[in-house]
Structure formats: C-alpha cells, structure tokens
Amino acid sequence: MLTTLEGIAQAIPDGALVGVPPDYSGVAMAATLALVRRSARDLRLFCLPQGNLHADMLTGAGCVAEIETAAVTLGEQGPAPCFNRAVEAGRIRVKDSTCPALHAALTATERGVPFLPVRGLLGSDILAHRPDYRSIDNPFAEGGDPLVLVPAVKLDVALFHAPAADAEGNVWIGRRRELATLAHAAERALVTVERVVEGSFFEREATAASALSSLYVEAIAEAPRGAAPLGLAEHYEPDVAALRAYARAARTEGGFRAWLAETIGEAVPA
C-alpha cells in the first residue's frame, strides 16, 4: 500500500476522472506536481466543491481536459489565471455546478442510489447548460413543488492529502468529511500524508471516528508538507508569500511556465 509520489502520479491514468478537495481540506499539492512532471494529459477534475491552486496549475500545465466545479479561484490572491485563459481559448470543457449539487452527486454514489434531489439549482442558468440534471415535481407533494435530480457520479480516483496514516493503511482525516465522501465515491483513493504512525486509528474511540478505513484506500505516500504552499488545518498555515508569487507569475503564459519550470526543476512542454 505504501508508495512514492511518483507512484501516486503513475497510478492516475490519462483521461481519469479525478476527485479533488478544496484548498481548506487537504490538497495533495506534492502529488499534483508529480502529475505535472509525468506530463499527465486529459484529466477530468471533479472539484468538491471548488478548485484552487491545484486546478489552476494542472490546467496551465496542459494536464486537464475537463473540470466540473462550483468555481476555480486563487481565493484571496484573486482569479485563477491559467484556468481563465484555458476557458477563454476553449482548451478545456467546464461543467458548471454548485456546491450542494457536487456534494449530492458523490453522496448519491456513497449511498448506492442513482441520483439525489436538490433545490438550489432552481431558477438558475446552470440548468440550461446541464442536460444531465433533470427537473421533476415532488411526488409526495400536492403539486407545485419542483426539485432537481442530480445524477450520481462515480470517480475513477480520489486524490487528497491528510495528516496521517497508520500502519494498517487507515487514514486520519479529522473533521474533513468531504475527504471520506471523495474516497467512498471513487474506484480507488490515492492519499499523501504528513506521516505514517504505528498501530491502528480504530483501536481508540478518540481516533476511530475521524479515520477513513483502509478498505477505501489503494495507496499512500508519505509527503511531509505535502499540501504546501496551501495549508493543512492545525499543522501549517498557507504560505501567503508563495501563493502571491504564483498569482503574479501566472498572469501570463510565459510567467506561469517560468514559475513551473523553476518549481519542478525542468522545462514544461507547451
């Protein structure tokens, strides 16, 4: 079960539907850079529920063909420049959605049902661009109670970073239940962690409730500070200076490629 960052990257085939968490939940940034180094192509990102630095970087490096998300931004550092350029140039397909709808799609897979109903999409322009979302009337009401049905989504891979794994391959995710949802809705989960510890998280009540069972985890790579320059709650804060430097560099195609080449230590093909 234990592997390397390169092993994680090699385990994600080109064209895979990859579920990734938001910047506050444990993004596998070290593995993201490994995907860039191996020149991954045609990935389809499913952001739960939005993309940040990882989505922008993969898009700029030419690794992404499609993104399903509620948004892609750099948060306090402003818009996601590589993502915006790719959208404007028609290089990627965007499946626009909302946070509740994205969670509903994966939760439906978790529960083994073909869809889940949501209300928040009603009256929005999203329905005009998502023919896979269906509107119905609540069959338990007297009428005039519309719902939107969001189909279940089965991910090929869930990719995220967590504080720790134990010797049995269980992963401690704390309160970040969206990481469990990603893993439950994926064929396999590939996880990077700050450290691997002895014993089992399921031996104690205090850690069992915050652990993801190894049943859902295919491979783990130890990667200290593997979410940096993004943060990892209660372990380290985001590196604001590094994020600002990325945002400045990525404003232009050339600036992004220079930044990425310096970061990964090699030139990136256009």
Keywords:
13 strands; Glutaconate Coenzyme A-transferase; globular; alpha/beta; 2 domains
Straight-line N-to-C gap: 34 Å
| Share of residues in helices | 25-40%
- What is the 3D shape? globular
Number of H- or I-type helical stretches:
10
- Number of discrete domains: 2
Measured by DSSP, the beta-strand proportion falls in 25-35%
CATH architecture assignment of the largest domain = 3-Layer(aba) Sandwich
Strand elements, count: 13
CATH fold annotation of the largest domain: Glutaconate Coenzyme A-transferase
**What is the chains' assembly state?**
single chain
Structural class: alpha/beta
How does this model look, in words?
The protein is α/β, with parallel strands linked by helices and 270 residues long. It has helices at 5-10, 29-37, 53-60, 81-89, 99-111, 126-129, 177-184, 205-208, 240-249, 253-264; strands at 2-3, 17-20, 43-47, 64-69, 93-96, 115-118, 134-137, 146-151, 155-166, 171-172, 186-197, 211-212, 217-222. It starts with a strand and ends in a 6-residue tail after the last helix. It is globular and about 60 Å long. Helices cover 31% and strands 26% of the residues. Helix 3 (53-60) crosses helix 4 (81-89) and helix 5 (99-111) crosses helix 7. The model has no long low-confidence stretch (mean pLDDT 96). Strands 1, 2, 3, 4, 5, 9, 10, 11, 12 and 13 form a ten-stranded mixed beta sheet that branches. Strands 6-8-7 form a three-stranded antiparallel beta sheet, with helices on one face. It folds into two domains: 2-97 and 155-260, Glutaconate Coenzyme A-transferase (3-Layer(aba) Sandwich); 116-151, no CATH class.
